[in-house]
Amino acid sequence: MTRKRFKPVFNTLTKAVFIYSVLASGATFANMTEDEAAYVSTPPVIDGIADDDAWKDVKWNVMSSQMWGTLPEATDFSGRYKLRWDERALYLLAEIQDDHLSDTYADPLERYWDDDCLEIFIDADGSGGDHFNNYNAFAYHLALDNQVVDIGPDENGDAVAQLYNDHVDSAWKRDLTPPFLVYWEAAIRVFDDSYQHGKDNSPLTLKKGMQLGFMLAYCDADGKDREHFMGSHEITPVNGDKNLGFKDASVFGKLILKGR
Ligand SMILES: [Ca+2]
Ligand SMILES: [Ca+2]
Ligand SMILES: [Ca+2]
C-alpha cells in the first residue's frame, strides 16, 4: 500500500464547494444533546490510573454511536468516559476496550485517523458551524504516543494537519486483568476562535455556566487502517455520511460546566 503523507491544501473552489454543501445540508443546526461536567477542586493526576477522587461517583457516558465503518463487537471496541473541569482545563477519563492497539504510521501527521486514536471535539463557545480551516472548533486526534493532531490553518492560511501538543496532556495505561481495559486520562485546555497557530495563545479560563460544544470518539484500527469510528453523540447523516465532526462543529453535543 502506498503511504502518502497527508498534507492537505484546499483550493478556493474546494472550500466553496464544502461550505456550500454544509449550508445546503442543514447541518448547521446544533446537536441538542446536553451533557454536564461538575467542577473539581483537586484535578485528577494525568497518569492513566483511574483511582483519583475526581473520578469517584461521576456518571459514565457511552461511546456507542457509529460514525463511520462497521459496528464492532464489544471486545473489538467499546468505550465510555467521564468529565470534570476547573478553571484551567477540562478533564477526561476514557475507559477503552480494544483487542489490538495499533500505531502503524510513525509520522504523527500521516494518516493519523488510521491509527488507534481518541478524538476529542471541542467548540469553546458552542457556536457550531464549519471548523475545517479555522479555529471555530478543534478535533484533537490523541495518538497512542500522546501526539495531538488536527487540521487547521497554518501561517499562510492553508488547511494542514498540525500538532497541538500543548493543548492536551494525556496518559494511558492498560489494566492488567481481563478484559485488559485501557484507562486514558487527558487535561484539555480550551482555546477559542482567536487562536493563531505558531503565535502566543492563552487558553480560556473556564467558568461555571459555560456551554461548550463537545463530543468524543475513538478511531479503532487493529493493525491495519481504521475499521471502526465510534462516538458519544448520534449524528444525523448528510448524504449518508456521519463522519462530519472533523469539519462541522454543529454535530457536537452541548457540554454545560456545573458547580462553583
Ligand atoms: Ca489518574
Ligand atoms: Ca479493535
Ligand atoms: Ca485498535
Automatic annotation (TrEMBL):
Molecular-function annotations in GO: carbohydrate binding; hydrolase activity, hydrolyzing O-glycosyl compounds
Extent of the signal sequence: 1-30
One Pfam assignment: CBM9_1
Keyword Cytoplasm: no
This protein's UniProt keywords: Signal
CDD domains found in the cross-reference section: DOMON_like
Keyword presence, Mitochondrion: no
Span of domain Carbohydrate-binding: 46-259
Gene Ontology process terms (BP): carbohydrate catabolic process
Protein name: Sugar-binding protein
Lineage of source species: Bacteria, Pseudomonadati, Pseudomonadota, Gammaproteobacteria, Alteromonadales
